[in-house]
Structure formats: structure tokens, C-alpha cells
Amino acid sequence: MIAPNAAPIAAAPVSVGSLGAAEAAAEYLAVMGALADARIGPLEILAGGVPPEPGPHYPAGEVWDQVTHAQYFFHAHADGDRHPGEVGHFHTFLGQGGMPRGLVPLVLPEMALAPLKLPVKEKGGVSMTHRSARDRGVFSHLIGISVDAAGVPLALFTTNRWVTGETWYRAEDVIRLLDRFAFAEAGPTALVDRWLVAVLRLLRRPVVELIEARDAVMMDWRRRRSRQSHVFDDRRLEVMSERPIDFAAALAEARAQVA
User: Fold this and answer.
1) Residue 57 belongs to some domain of the structure
2) Cβ(176)–Cβ(115) under 8 Å?
3) Strand bridging mode 88-95 / 239-244
4) pLDDT tens profile 110-141
5) Per-residue model confidence as pLDDT tens digits over 161-195
6) Which domain holds residue 163?
7) How many structural domains compose the chain?
8) How many whole angstroms separate alpha carbon 142 and alpha carbon 132?
9) What is the DSSP string of 81-121?
10) Taking the alpha carbons of 48, 137, 142, 85 in that order, is the dihedral positive or negative?
11) Domain presence at residue 28
12) What's phi and psi for 242, nearest 5 deg?
């Protein structure tokens, strides 16, 4: 499915960290207006106009920007694994090539004795998400966003390392990476790219709180259960932190900040 032209939305790529709240609200509304004019939704663009099925990543091959190293995909789980009203969720990432120099992953002492296992696809093979050879498989999962059929965000969540095979960075570093999330390339998903950047800026406050909570949960779990299993490889701990959100309220609050 061909997406509508995104050129009127923004003349240059913008990142989560470069947008003010009111600017993010304006960007979001502009994108939604363009989508409404084209009678298409963000999920339709990614799934090619068909209802997304549980399992596959949309779009095929995922979205990855070779300039900024931002990446995301949308996918759905079985009905029993969804929030009420959810049709699926986005996973957002930033690869090594988009990270500031000197960023060091978190290393726990037990890592030397308990090698981590990457997630494996149902039909075999290692399930890595990042496509950039330059990132050498090093990427950070920023946040997950559950949405309804219209693409309205319903909830936010973070995951354990084994879920995505990411490299684990401290919360304060992941927040820095969140602010670098941007897209410089204009492709068939350009409107969705800009929509997602605007959504992340509008929800930045709860996203930051959930990233911080993620680390607190990880350290608490490690302290209480480290003798049973390596925390990053413990299948009992999948979702680290999550929260339902009122996106309409967040949008209204941002619009009220217009000078």
C-alpha cells in the first residue's frame, strides 16, 4: 500500500529530544490529518492494508533508518496476551550507530559465569531485530507501545533483555537514546515514522518513568532470585514495567502549552 506524501509534515527530521511538547502535538495532529485525508491509518501503512496477524513483524523487514539508526516494528500477540482494546504494539530501538560515543553497557558480575541466551524463533534461528551490519547487533530497546485498531496508544511497557536480545544500558543512558530517536530518510513509512516520534515526545514523561522503573525491577529481581537464574535470561520476568496511559489527556496537555 502506498502511503500519502509526508513532505508537508516536516522539512527536516526531528528527534524526540528536539521537539517541544506543543510542537509534538502539532506534528501529531498534522500527521493524523494527512492520514485522514488519505483514508488510511498508521497500522494499515505498515501491514499493507490487511489486518495484522499475530506473530509477524510489520512492515516486513522492519523500519530502520541508516542515518539515525532508529528502528521499530509493529506486531501482535494472541488475544490472551493483549491489553483490553489492543490490536498489537510497537517495539522501538536505537542501534549502536546512533548512540553517543563512550556509552558503556551495564555489566553484572554474574555475566562472566552465566552467558545470556538470545531469543529463538519458533522455527529455529536466532531472532535478532536490528538489521544494520554497522551496529554489529548492538541496540537498545527504548519502549513498547500498545495501540488500538486506530493506532491510539493504550499502554507503555519495557521488557527484559531476553525478549529482544538487546544490549542492556542503564536507565539514564536509555533515556538519552530515547531523545535521539528520529528518522532522516523519507520512505513509504515516513508518516508513521513522524507519527511515532511525536507520540514518544508526547508520552516522554511516562516513558522515562517506566525506563527508570525497569532498572529498579531488574535489580530487585536479581537480588531476590539471582541464585535461581540470571535475571536477563529469566523467562519468568518478561515485562519489566508497564502502565496504561490516557493519550487524549497527554495530547490535550501538550496543546495547552502553546504560547
Assistant:
1) yes
2) no
3) unpaired
4) 665 555 555 544 443 344 455 555 577 889 99
5) 999 989 999 999 999 999 999 999 888 999 999 99
6) 52-185+203-247
7) 1
8) 17
9) GS-TT--EEEEEEEEGGGSPTT------GGGGTS-----B-
10) positive
11) no
12) -155, 160
